[in-house]
Automatic annotation (TrEMBL), chains A, B:
It comes from Staphylococcus caeli. GO terms for biological process: glycerophospholipid biosynthetic process. Its cofactor is Mg(2+). Pathway: Membrane lipid metabolism; glycerophospholipid metabolism. This is Heptaprenylglyceryl phosphate synthase. Belongs to the GGGP/HepGP synthase family. Group I subfamily. InterPro entries: GGGP/HepGP_synthase_I, GGGP/HepGP_synthase_sf, GGGP_HepGP_synthase. Gene3D superfamilies: FMN-linked oxidoreductases. Homodimer. The keyword Lipid metabolism applies. Its EC number is 2.5.1.n9. It holds the Pfam family PcrB. GO terms for molecular function: heptaprenylglyceryl phosphate synthase activity; magnesium ion binding.
Length: 230, 230
């Protein structure tokens, strides 16, 4: 069992985007704590499976973040399952989860499953649109969501997701201040070491994604926060 | 702290209905494990408060099941907060909870709070209509909800609610069979000792409500399941 509590940095790879073998090797050997495969568009069993097999050549922990029931495949170290707390559609609260449990419930090893309480904050991102998320939130909303996750649902992870844009550190801090048990993930728009450092000061774990496909050197540089945030 | 795990029998009182002092004394002295105040219609701070003060003359554990944010009042031993897992309206998943936490979050002692995962199964009951619950569920749905509550949300309580009608024991058993950690509450239509006994054989805790207002002797008789289900 992987202790995700110790993870400070995760690279998130989109199976719908291509990465050559050399770049994939650099990501896997970067010193990051884990690689998460996940995305919103064009996620298929086929492209997930291909990427999984390429990464399984390395010893890095590999996580699948499940975005639809159709593309759940075995072979990952862990499975992260999102529940989107600020979605206005019950499908993204527990509707997809219900279908997944009806289909795979008897096969699931729950010790490999981590349930993430998502709050999506960038109104322009794909995930906000798909889940019809109410992104117009105040600090008080974020505090209440954090309390909900930490004290009521007692989920292992709260994921503050600014997907595609760099977030407001004040909002992330509002969440962090309410969490005593739940681990705080921050994701969205991290493209420099400085941005990584700023969010790693507040969140327990930062997720670095898009910059991998834009500037590999800058992406790799973000792993250095592991030295300054031990 | 009350150990609700030991509770086999709960009387649920509706603050919108009247009960004379003698009947209230008989309920409080019946040997039931706790009294829960809750309802759907005409629940006000005033009628909850009055009933609470009358019951506080007895030593029985007293719980408020919160049905709206406006009628939360201090003075109870425990607060049960429902999340309706098969509601089609996010308000009854976590929407009301968000408002409650924004209003009262800083005041809440979470050691006094129990989060209940409700599945509402009687399509004709008020709570099903208010929450727009999808009550057309199969055994497989109930199993998936139970797994969701037990293994994903890890809620302390799953509440199978047939409000106003006696449920199908097969459905209740489908839930019970999936629960290893979560405590199973059954409520709905229990009006005889035999019905209480049948459900207490399957569920951890039975909730007896309406019959109190229809036939006090029969209601009190249901408490005898505590002798046969130790």
């Amino acid at each position: 069992m992987h202790d995700i509590k110790t993870w400070k940095h995760i690279f998130k790879l989109d199976p719908a985007k291509s990465l050559n073998d050399d770049d994939l090797r650099r990501i896997c050997m970067s010193g990051t704590d884990a690689i998460m495969i996940g995305g919103t568009d064009n996620i298929t069993e086929n492209n997930i499976s291909q990427l999984m097999h390429r990464i399984n050549n390395y010893s890095i922990p590999l996580v699948l973040e499940i975005s639809n029931v159709e593309s759940v495949i075995p072979g990952f170290d862990l499975y992260f399952i999102p529940t989107v707390l600020n979605s206005s559609d019950v499908k993204y609260h527990n509707g997809m989860l219900l279908q997944a449990l009806k289909t795979y419930g008897h096969l699931i090893d729950f010790s490999e499953v981590v349930f993430e309480g998502y709050v999506v904050l960038n109104p322009d991102c794909k995930v906000a649109k798909v889940t019809r998320a109410n992104t117009n939130l105040t600090d008080e909303d974020i505090e209440a969501y954090a309390q909900m996750v930490n004290d009521m649902y007692r989920l292992p992870v709260m994921y503050v997701e600014y997907s595609g844009t760099y977030g407001e550190t004040g909002m992330v801090k509002a969440a962090a201040d309410m969490l005593t048990e739940t681990q705080l993930f921050y994701g969205g728009g991290i493209s420099t070491y400085e941005e990584a450092h700023a969010m790693a000061t507040i969140a327990d774990t930062i997720i670095v994604g898009n910059i991998i496909y834009e500037d590999m050197d800058k992406a790799l540089k973000t792993v250095e926060i592991k030295e300054t945030h031990k």
